[in-house]
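Anyone else keep sequences and structure tokens together like this?

Example one:
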Amino acid sequence: MATPNQEDELTMSTDEFLEAQAELYHHCIAFVKSLTLKAATDLGVADAIHRRGGAATLSDLASETGIHPTKLSNLRRIMRVLTASGIFSVQHSDVVSDDDAVYKLTRVSRLLVKSSSYQLSPVVPVLVDPFAWSALLRMPEWLATDERASLFDLAHGCPLWDTTVEDGGLFKDGMAADSRVAMHVLLARCGGVFEAVRSSLVDVGGSHGTTAAAVAKAFPHIKCTVLDLPDVVAGAPANDAAVTFVAGDMFEYIPPADAILLKWILHDWKDEDCIKILRRCKEAIPSRDAGGKVIIIETVVGSGSPGAQQIFSKEAQVLMDVFMMYIDGIEREEHEWSKIFFEAGFSDYKITPTNGVLSVIEVYP
């Protein structure tokens, strides 16, 4: 008589075993897609294709990016991964050779063209980050103990924010690029959220004002202020007439305004810290009848309309959640958001999902 384990094995045919093995290996080496994407971004492959009028051979790419001629076949292998994963597209001629393929941009790789106003190439090294990866490799050890330090602290002996001070602007540039693209889309799709703000808005943790400047440009009636730490504000542009910069600590005080904006801030913090921040926000805004609200731009895990177009977005949401674990951050589901809103003293909220990873949340006192 077969044991339970043997019965499980016997339910799989030879083909099913092979398919399961291939699927397992695919998951194990999926990180290679991220590394080839970063390599292509660092080399400027998307820019090279763009400069060649939107179509380039391997020789074109090597010439444009400085690839050594002896590495042409290696470049072909990298591009094969990136075309299989949909980052680039490829067309082949009838002649089979290393240089028969013509590579083109897709909607994804167009976001990597640095001459575009809405390019996301600076975000790639923020997400494909050896510091984050080495921290996440400590998950089994971290999960098995009551260790209160974050994975990043455990792996590197300091908080993430200590390293961003000396990263040459990598993190700041990545967040600014994300804000330019996010606000371009969100102001078009969810502009009413901001248009309804009566006269003033404070962007908490808004760095050098990319998000606030976009709001001020779209809605000139709104006086926009950025609150950030003193060392951040010290490097802010001095000639930005549309945005005022204030140095301070969001845990201590937030300047009064009709609306407070938090973009990708709360996912960095545990619930108890988010509640403290939100209470400071509530102190800074008027009543709901007087137009007061907090605008949060974050991921709401599980949000979005059903359909095939949501597959990437929903997987990205849960992947981002585990990624954020490296600094003890979290991407929250709606019930988790609701819990911290009400514990912070707010009375109501409204979530406007998008087809991407972000949602716009309006929280009312």
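And example two:
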Amino acid sequence: MNNKSASPKAGKVIRCKAAICRIPGKPLVIEEIEVEPPKAWEVRIKILCTSLCHSDVTFWKSSTDLPKLPLPVIFGHEAVGVVESVGEYVEEVKERDLVLPIFQRDCGECRDCKSSKSNTCSKFGRGYRPNMPRDGTSRFRELKGDVIHHFLNISSFTEYTVVDITHVVKITPHIPLGIACLLTCGVSTGVGAAWKVAGVEVGSTVAIFGLGAVGLAVIKEMTDGGADYCFECIGLASVMNDAFNSSREGWGKTVILGVEMHGSPISLNSIEILKGRSVCGTFFGGLKPKSDIATLAQKYLDKELNLDEFITHEVSFHDINKAFDLLLEGKSLRCVIWMDKLI
């Protein structure tokens, strides 16, 4: 344990409330759990607020075509919190820092992180383990001692979580907490896709397929003759094909942001590719969290990036299942879930 730690809970197990998924597609159950202290290179975070993303819902439904998650599991990957304590070797953040836990890791050391060509990080291999990325174990336990699993290396539907430092970004305290929460997935993915991946120029024509939080964060404009840039934000192979076929011959570029919810492949006509159309995919909008998130936060503070309209609902943690209902009913764009505030 880091000797610099001053938190009275540092190095000790914390008991707190968490919303646990035990049966796919069934309401989450709020229970008391134990959260272990952070190990080397890890940070324990007190979650201030979190929000519900479509990806949480997709895995919560547990489609037979998606990778199976071990149960029970704590979902949630859009959040903002305060550092409660840090493990050995953590120098990047300290106790009481305001931070964002972000599913897209950024170690800054591997070949991929050092490259400007993508935002992939290969420090722990490809893909996501169900628990902590370095040792594959969980920091969550039921009171009787059984393991509760992590989700996307974050698990923010709990009052306290433990995250590897490669998934932690320090954020300015001047940004509203609900807005900061949005920067950890959907909004950043949409903005980054237009800015970093597509490189949309002023005057370009753009078509967006799927106007969720991601789609609305790209750009809102279409034109006849094929769009210069198409963004697929739903996660359906058929819509990916539609997006590609809607791009302009010669230079039309299609960027796929949605996670295909059925695991279906896409089929593109090779002749259309020869005509100059191209397609690519991206996680987290091509953003490198530790450098690019601060830029987006500053753009919001400078009123260059309007994010306030994305928050359509707010609920208290004990009403977290209401957030699922709102999203499933199509009534919510982003619902902020407050851990310690009654709504």
